[in-house]
Design a protein that fits this description.
Layout: H1 4-27, H2 35-51, E1 75-77, E2 87-88, H3 91-104, E3 113-119, E4 122-129, E5 132-138, E6 144-146, H4 149-153, E7 173-181, H5 184-197, H6 205-213, H7 218-223, E8 227-236, H8 244-253, E9 263-265, H9 268-281, E10 289-296, H10 299-305, E11 315-319, E12 324-336, E13 342-353, E14 356-362, H11 366-372, E15 379-385, E16 389-395, H12 438-449, H13 461-469, H14 484-488, H15 495-507, H16 513-519, H17 527-536, H18 540-545, H19 548-552, H20 559-570, H21 572-583, E17 605-609, H22 617-626, E18 630-631, E19 641-644, H23 651-657, E20 661-663, H24 665-673
Parallel strand pairs: 2-11, 17-18, 17-19, 19-20
Antiparallel strand pairs: 1-6, 3-9, 3-10, 4-5, 4-7, 7-8, 10-11, 12-13, 12-15, 13-14, 15-16
Helix pairs in contact: 1-2, 12-13, 16-17
The structure holds adenosine monophosphate (AMP) and zinc ion.
The site of zinc ion (ZN) has 9 residues, from loops.
């Protein structure tokens, strides 16, 4: 039997190992062990801590999550103020700043600089006492900020306790300053998800990042995939770094993640080179940056320069020029998508912008064309919107051909000639000829066969085009009735390829249920929502029979989505297609959750409202699901129980009206204890 001291030592060793590998993985991007080995260490620690809860400390790597949501953030005063930065909007202003520095330190004195990319995120300061993270706060107004420690703890690259640096001890008090940001790839994924659930999208990675870190529920923060670059530090200690670059190195040794693109420059020429290089190269980074922060390296020089009331004189933020390019509109193509929506696309004379060649830009809709008065042949300015998608920002009227005419938005569908329509609440025109418009028919079938849907090999854009044009198919279900002879009738088609295609189609008949739902191309239902629906419905019949209330009661399904689903299944063409799919033997159901049958709460739907004293709502939800029950976010006729905690919301009224059984916290606890 281990003694307590042995266990304590074992726990400490495990924590050190985990912290070290965590640092290699998240802060250094250079892991030495596999994820699996890492998970094994983590599990071992968790188990030991569960058996010995008195040995859990707040800096244990197991404590990064688990805190409960707070009502609001506490205001905290910063021990050292966080300054803002003066800007230099062009090279001239940068030179102006340099000339002012030269007044204090005339030639031939040396002035060295550190150049850092200015990451567009949320500034935070992290306090460590005796090596332990004690507080993390937002910059706020520079003097007071908000205490967001629990949220910051969920970010893996933020050390909970500091490492011992080489050849020195850990300073007694450390304040590390850095920028929290959301990588562009994560931002795009998050928006894609929000699009599909009908939630409003974030305008840019900055908003997404600062919105995520200021979530009251740290579990939301954890899901959002945030990261940090640390770019400054204050140390209370008898030995301190003598230069900013050494500060960064010390911070790295203590376990922080610094931006690998930070560079020490010997003179202002090197600074300018750095700025010009990153003005172009920034678009290859997975984070948004809008400039370069240039800092005087020597801390004695910094001290001599001092501060104005709002910013240090020893630093400046050089802003990248906005990326724009002038090019010509060759023609405007109204493009019809699989849902019938018409998006005007400007085809441009190729131009280099933000490191890529731009040939096309979206003009969004007819209103936008009118607003900008874009005409064919115009010279237009294009820029990368939110640094990502090209957009036409303005027309140069001086370069306009005097004979040009305002662009006439087509009144009929360019693909099928049907008169375009516009619904009151929508900005886009659409072609109402859902079944007959070749662009929509092709789009739907292509989507059906796509990677995220039924994943049918060989059936891509050109194959679908040929099949539709030859009138061999008109909807996805027709694919399953194609014969070898049909395929052989296409141009340049051999026996072998034809049978490959038929096989691939036949093999797609029993794809997973979520793929099938996605493949249908229901309005507002994408990959993620399809996945969610597949977990709530067992078969397509069940989904088809679901009404608006029960659909919108599902957590993650908004009203727009619910309406889209209900309307979809009412469409006679859809009903006809489903019949054809069924007769062809396409699997139209998922796997029944078997074990759920015999669980105590199976078939029961719960809604939670108000605050529970003994557990969080998420925890309550987990318990219900574990016992086979379902959770939904709104009360409907199909709700079995409303669990009402303290300060219940309007759901309580609705439940009373609909005669739904209401449980208080004690009754609920009794129910789950059975
Ligand atoms: P401003 O908000 O324009 O006054 O600029 C100051 C802000 O720049 C700071 O609060 C940080 O959020 C941000 N920033 C981003 N990168 C850096 C960096 N490397 N050094 C200092 N500040 C930075
Ligand atoms: Zn059409």
């Amino acid at each position: 039997m281990d003694t307590k001291i042995d266990i304590k030592r074992q726990i400490e060793t495990l924590r050190n190992k985990i912290n070290y590998h965590n640092y290699l993985y998240y802060a250094k991007d250079a892991p030495e062990i596999s994820d699996r080995e890492f998970d094994a260490l983590f599990r071992e620690l968790k188990q030991l801590e569960e058996q010995n809860p008195e040995l859990i400390t707040p800096d244990s790597p197991t404590q990064r999550i688990g805190a409960v949501p707070s009502e609001k953030f506490e205001q905290v005063e910063h021990k050292y103020p966080l300054y803002s930065l003066d800007n230099a909007n062009n090279e001239e202003e940068l030179t102006g700043w340099y000339n002012r520095l030269r007044k204090t330190f005339p030639e031939p004195q040396k002035i060295e600089f550190v150049c850092e990319l200015k990451v567009d995120g949320l500034a935070v300061t992290l306090s460590y006492d005796n090596g332990m993270l004690t507080r993390g706060a937002t910059r706020g107004d520079g003097r007071t900020g908000e205490n967001i420690t629990t949220n910051l703890k969920t970010i893996n690259s933020i050390p909970l306790s500091l490492f011992q640096p080489e050849s020195r001890h850990i300073p007694e008090h450390v304040e590390a300053r850095g920028e929290i940001y959301m990588p562009i790839s994560s931002f795009e994924k998050l928006n894609e998800k929000r699009r599909q659930t009908g939630e409003p999208e974030f305008a840019n990675p900055r908003n997404a990042g600062s919105g995520s870190v200021r979530q009251l529920d740290p579990r939301v923060t954890k899901e959002r995939d945030l990261d940090i670059f640390v770019y400054g530090g204050v140390f209370e200690d008898h030995t301190k770094p003598g230069a900013h670059y050494e500060t960064i190195q010390l911070l790295q040794q203590l376990g922080f993640r610094a931006n690998p693109n930070t560079r020490l420059c010997e003179d202002i020429e090197q600074v300018k080179e750095y700025c010009n290089h990153w003005d172009e190269a920034r678009f290859e980074l997975n984070y948004a940056t809008d400039g370069v922060v240039v800092k005087v390296n020597d801390l004695n020089q910094q001290e001599e320069l001092g501060y104005t009331s709002r910013s240090p004189r020893w630093a400046i933020a050089y802003k990248f020029p906005p990326e724009r390019a002038l090019t010509k509109v060759v023609y405007i193509e109204p493009s019809v998508g699989r849902t019938g929506a018409v998006t005007p696309i400007a085809h441009l004379e190729p131009v280099k912008l933000a490191g890529t060649i731009v040939k096309r830009a979206s003009l969004h809709n007819a209103d936008e064309i009118k607003r900008l008065d874009i005409r064919i042949g115009d010279k237009v300015w294009v820029k990368k919107a939110a640094e990502i998608i090209p957009k036409v920002i303005s027309v140069d009227p001086k370069k306009r051909n005097p004979d040009s005419m305002p662009y006439q938005y087509p009144e009929t569908c360019p693909e099928c000639g049907t008169r375009l329509e516009r619904k009151e609440e929508e900005v886009a025109f659409h072609c109402p000829n859902t079944m007959g418009c070749p662009a929509q028919v092709k789009g739907r079938i292509e989507y059906w066969a796509g990677r995220d849907a039924m994943d049918i090999e060989w059936v891509g854009e050109s194959m679908v085009n040929q099949l539709v044009e030859k009138r061999l198919i008109n909807d996805p279900a027709d694919l399953y009735y194609l014969t070898i002879e049909d395929i052989l009738s296409l141009e340049r088609m051999g026996d072998k390829s034809a049978s490959n295609i038929i096989n691939a189609i036949q093999q797609s008949k029993d794809r997973a249920f979520n793929r099938l739902i996605n493949a249908l191309g229901i309005k507002y239902v994408g990959k993620e929502t399809a996945e969610l629906l597949s977990r709530n419905f067992y078969s397509l019949d069940e989904l088809k029979n679901a009404d608006f209330d029960s659909l919108s009661a599902i957590d993650g399904i908004g009203e727009k989505v619910a309406e889209g689903i209900v309307n979809f299944f009412k469409n006679p063409h859809v009903i006809d297609m489903l019949e054809k799919l069924k007769n062809a033997g396409v699997k139209l159901y998922g796997q029944k959750p078997q074990e759920a049958e015999n669980l105590p709460l199976s078939q029961k739907t719960f809604v939670l409202t108000g605050t529970l004293k003994s557990m969080t709502r998420t925890r309550a939800g987990d318990i219900i699901k574990k016992l086979g029950g379902k959770i939904s976010s709104g009360v409907s006729k199909k709700t079995d129980y409303l669990v009402a905690g303290e300060d219940p919301g309007s759901k309580l009224e609705k439940a009373k009206k609909l005669d739904v059984k209401i449980l208080n916290e004690i009754e609920f606890c009794e129910l789950i204890a059975k």
